[in-house]
């Protein structure tokens, strides 16, 4: 099991306070890494890091600000001395504050330009900037693993029918922003893998499927029906894949897209 050990490694997880982000952090801790919990709320990030153990830390990182990332990078290097793993997990997935307007606003014909641009800024530019700053440290060290979290929707178009309720009415549409940005992440991974391969920096994509998280019963049923395993994922079911990509267990793997989706994209 030494292949999967991350003992003595320093790992950064962006968007770390989200449902899957917390599970990513917990997995890295279990494998022995020192984990930097990075999110927009520094106090909550610090509190969650403290719950993981005293060797872990929380930082506020705005992934759209190169300056903020550089400041965080200096702090991390001062404390830990190296940066070995970067999990680019921060992302925007559309949420509509007013459910009554969700259908209207999520329709492509009406989708707000500012929402699209915000997703581009966080989901793509954020991955670019974090990789540029933290990955450059890895390139200088001549070792490191970058894991870009994408989605099944980075490979296939959304099936809008799963967002219909029990009466067959469309509650909302999956917007263009998420699939467009996640598709970009998949190919950005390939670029970085080719660019930094000679520096010993491995770059891979983890593409998860949908996670059950108190969604409407009709949605869970619709989603499960389209998945060979017949269910949505549990939040902790990406932990093994993450440790694999972060560790020497995947030492000869770069530029790949590891799909963990219960078979969603297989049919």
Structure summarized in a few sentences:
The chain has 267 residues and is α/β, with parallel strands linked by helices. The chain has one domain (2-96, 123-157, 176-214, 234-266): NAD(P)-binding Rossmann-like Domain (Rossmann fold), CATH 3.40.50.720.
Give an overview of the whole structure.
The chain is of the alpha/beta class and 267 residues long. The chain has eight helices and seven strands; from the N terminus they run βαβαβαβααβαβααβ. The protein has one domain: NAD(P)-binding Rossmann-like Domain (Rossmann fold). The protein has helices spanning 19-30, 42-52, 66-80, 99-106, 113-141, 177-196, 217-225, 239-246; strands at residues 10-14, 34-39, 57-60, 85-88, 144-149, 201-208, 257-260. Strands 3-2-1-4-5-6-7 form a seven-stranded parallel β-sheet, sandwiched between helices. The model has no long low-confidence stretch (mean pLDDT 96). This is SDR family oxidoreductase.
């Amino acid at each position: 099991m030494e292949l999967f050990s991350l003992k003595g490694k320093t790992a950064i997880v962006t968007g770390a306070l989200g449902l899957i982000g917390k599970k990513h952090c917990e997995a890295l801790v279990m494998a022995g890494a020192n984990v930097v919990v990075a999110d927009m709320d520094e106090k909550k990030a610090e509190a969650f890091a403290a719950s993981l153990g005293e060797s872990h830390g929380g930082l506020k990182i705005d992934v759209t600000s190169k300056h903020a990332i550089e400041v965080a990078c200096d702090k991390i290097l001062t404390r830990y001395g190296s940066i070995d793993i970067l999990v680019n997990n921060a992302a925007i997935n559309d949420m509509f504050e007013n459910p009554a307007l969700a259908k209207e606003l999520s329709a492509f014909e009406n989708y707000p330009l500012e929402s699209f641009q915000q997703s581009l800024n966080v989901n793509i530019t954020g991955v670019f900037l974090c990789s540029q700053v933290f990955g450059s440290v890895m390139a200088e060290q001549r070792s490191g693993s970058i894991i870009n979290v994408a989605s099944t929707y980075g490979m296939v178009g959304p099936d809008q029918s799963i967002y219909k309720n029990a009466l067959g009415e469309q509650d909302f549409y999956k917007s263009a922003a998420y699939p467009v940005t996640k598709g970009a992440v998949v190919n950005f991974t390939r670029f970085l893998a080719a660019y930094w391969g000679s520096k010993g920096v491995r770059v891979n994509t983890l593409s998860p499927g949908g996670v059950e998280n108190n969604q409407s019963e009709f949605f869970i049923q619709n989603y499960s029906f389209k998945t060979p395993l017949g269910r949505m994922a549990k939040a902790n079911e990406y932990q093994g894949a993450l440790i694999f990509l972060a560790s020497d267990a995947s030492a000869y793997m770069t530029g790949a897209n590891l799909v963990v989706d219960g078979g969603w994209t297989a049919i």
